[in-house]
Every structure is written in structure tokens, then in C-alpha cells.
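A quick aside before the break. I want you to see a complete sequence-to-structure record at least once, exactly as it would be stored in a machine-readable document. Don't worry about memorizing anything.
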Amino acid sequence: MERKSQGPSASLAPNATSPINVPTLLTTEQAARVLGVKPQTLSIWRCKKRYGLRYRKVGGSVRYVMTDLLKFLEEAAVTPAAIRKPAIHRRSSPRRSARSARSF
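That is the input. The structure line, written in C-alpha cells, reads:
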């Protein structure tokens, strides 16, 4: 009689004696869909160490955790100009164009 493997998830399932919280790991393709970029973009970001997006190496595979992706998106939020405090531009003296400065 053949015995079927229940897979790694069966051995990691929480039970009454040892509850564990295992984050869901996403592939590069899945993470790219969440972020709205191409998988190649994530590869470049990893290689160039851009933006500090966290990832995990599991064996030879790259994996992302959803909470890290959501945190990355939150930190990338930009405040619209209408909400920002307006900048004060002051000039010490009015500028004259070169044309108006000429005398005929």
C-alpha cells in the first residue's frame, strides 16, 4: 500500500500545543502583480539594492511576504501638493529681462 505525502503544510499546521504563525510567501511574479510592476523590475531592484524592499531566499528561490509589500507601498505614499504646506518664494529684487534692460 502506497503512503501519500501530506506535504509541508500539514506538518506546519498550528495545533493546540504549539501555535505558529507562518507568513504566506509570494513568488516574484505574484509580488510584481501586487506592486503593479514587471517581475524583471523586482529582479533589478534586488540586484541594484534599490528601495529596500525586503525579500527572502528560500533555497534558491526568492520569496516576498505580503506584509512587507504592503509596508513598502505605504512608505512610498506621496502627499499631494494641495495638502502640503505651500512654499514661500521671495526675491530680494525684481528681475529684469535682458531685452528690457537694453537702451536704444
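Two observations worth writing down. DSSP finds five helices and three strands in the chain. The beta strands are 25-26, 56-58, 61-65. We'll return to this after the break.
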